[in-house]
Each structure stands twice: as structure tokens, then as C-alpha cells.
Specification:
Layout (H helix, E strand, L loop, with lengths): L1 H35 L10 H12 L4 H12 L10 E8 L5 E8 L2 H14 L3 E2 L9 E10 L4 H10 L4 E6 L5 E7 L4 H10 L3 E11 L3 E3 L2 H15 L4 E6 L1 E3 L1 H8 L1
Parallel strand pairs: 8-10
Antiparallel strand pairs: 1-2, 1-3, 2-9, 4-6, 4-7, 5-6
Helix pairs in contact: 1-2, 1-3, 7-8
């Protein structure tokens, strides 16, 4: 029985990984569809499309899936890409934590209903437009990995119009850097960092909070992380941003 139980657990874990991978494919494919709707199908001339394609390749999405998503956005493959629109939703999690949700949907009513249900089941509330967005500012972020010399990074950041950067060290001592800039300068910064031979692993728009809410209660932490997981699991949701600050051990314990 122990062997059977172990196999069942492995199988369930694989199913969860496969399900999450499928959701990732869906989310990125929608980004490609929307980016291709501009009519510029050459990635070299469409920064949004190029970024989405790079993200798709990093996630292991097959080339034929990428090409199909581009065709849908261009209107040459079915009608799946015609009705997707970007919508931002706002709400509060347990303890008054601010939550910002970005979605791509072809059915506003369905998306709003799914979000409201996720909030209600996990101790939060879906709010009105503008209720928490004033706490956030959108920035362009370029993530680089590999060998990072800080003097060279500073020079490239200044020349590329960056506002600031943050160095992060992983447990295996590898360095990554997140370089921040204004949204309209994101492509310029990304290209400048590449010109300086940095390895750009990700280019994205990110909401940065102007204030944070400290979460120290284990039960509140558990409910909050459960809510965020429920929101991120929705197919229509692309990104979830919040303004909570939580100790790493509390986060690990809550997710266990």
C-alpha cells in the first residue's frame, strides 16, 4: 500500500504540474494573440510580440503553438483572437491587503464572476475600479542573469535610461538583477543591456507598490496566499500583484 500511496502522490503532483503548465501556455498564448492584433507580425518591429514570443519559448511552448497564436491574432486562424481585451480588476485580501489583477478575457461577465467567487471563498472582496490602483505605479522591468559586474551594469543602466536596479542572490550564489525604467523606455533599456552583453532573461511590465502591509499572523498569511493562488489559477488572469510584506519562513510555512 505504501508503494501505491507514493505512486498516487507522484501522479497527483504530476497532474498539478501539467495543469499549471497548461495554464501558463494559455496565458502566454493570449499575450501573443493580443500582441499580433496590431497587424505587425514581424517580431523585430513589434516589441510586445517579440517579448511574448521570448516568454513563450522560455516556458517551453512549441513553435507550432506560437505560430498558431500569431495566426489567431492576425485573423488567419479561426476567430479566437478577435474578442480578447485587457481588463484590470482591483480588490482587497484578508487584512486589507491591496490586490491588482490583470486579465485578458473574451467574456467580462464570466471573468468578473470567477474573480468575485475566488475573493469571497478566501476572505477577500472584489472592489471598484480605482480602489487600490492609486497605491501602485507601472514600471518596465528587465531581468538579467549570468555574470553581472556592477560597474558595467551601472554604466549600461544609466545609458539605457534606467531609474534604478536591484541585485538578488539566489541560494546557489547565482546573481540576477532587476533593472527598472519608465514603461515607454522598456524596449530601449532592454536593447542597451543586450548591447552591453548582459543576458536578458525577462522583459515585463510590473506594478510597483508605494506602500506595503505587513502580514505576520499565520492564519492571515495562509488565507492570503490561498486567495492569490486561486486568482492566479483562473485562465483569464494574466498577473496578480499585491502590496503585502511577509517573512520568508511564514510564507514557506503557509504554503506547506
Amino acid at each position: 500500500m505504501a508503494g501505491h500511496s507514493k505512486w498516487a502522490n507522484i501522479k497527483r503532483q504530476k497532474e498539478r504540474v501539467d495543469a499549471r503548465k497548461g495554464k501558463t501556455f494559455t496565458k502566454i498564448s493570449r499575450e501573443i494573440i493580443v500582441a499580433a492584433r496590431s497587424g505587425i507580425l514581424d517580431p523585430s518591429g513589434n516589441f510586445q510580440l517579440r517579448t511574448a514570443i521570448e516568454k513563450a519559448k522560455a516556458a517551453g511552448i512549441p513553435n507550432e503553438n506560437i505560430e498558431r497564436a500569431i495566426a489567431k491574432g492576425a485573423g488567419t486562424w479561426g476567430t479566437d483572437g478577435e474578442n480578447f481585451e485587457a481588463i484590470r480588476y482591483e480588490g482587497y485580501g484578508p487584512g486589507g491587503v491591496a490586490i491588482l489583477i490583470e486579465a485578458l478575457t473574451d467574456n467580462r461577465n464570466r471573468t468578473a464572476a470567477d474573480l468575485r467567487a475566488a475573493f469571497t471563498k478566501n476572505g477577500g472582496n472584489l472592489g471598484e475600479t480605482g480602489c487600490v490602483s492609486w497605491m501602485f505605479a507601472q514600471k518596465g522591468v528587465v531581468v538579467i542573469t549570468g555574470a553581472i559586474g556592477e560597474e558595467k551594469l551601472l554604466e549600461a543602466s544609466l545609458e539605457g535610461g534606467a531609474q534604478n536596479y536591484e541585485l538578488n542572490q539566489a541560494e546557489d550564489d547565482t546573481l540576477t538583477a532587476e533593472v527598472f525604467t519608465e514603461v515607454e523606455n522598456l524596449q530601449t533599456l532592454s536593447l542597451m543591456l543586450q548591447d552591453y552583453s548582459f543576458t536578458v532573461s525577462e522583459v515585463e511590465l510590473r506594478w510597483i507598490t508605494s506602500n506595503t502591509v505587513e502580514v505576520s499572523d499565520p492564519e492571515q498569511a495562509r488565507s492570503l496566499l490561498k486567495l492569490i493562488d486561486a486568482l492566479e489559477d483562473l485562465d483569464d488572469v494574466q498577473n496578480v500583484t499585491s502590496n503585502f510584506d511577509m517573512a520568508e519562513e511564514l510564507m514557506s510555512g503557509s504554503m506547506a
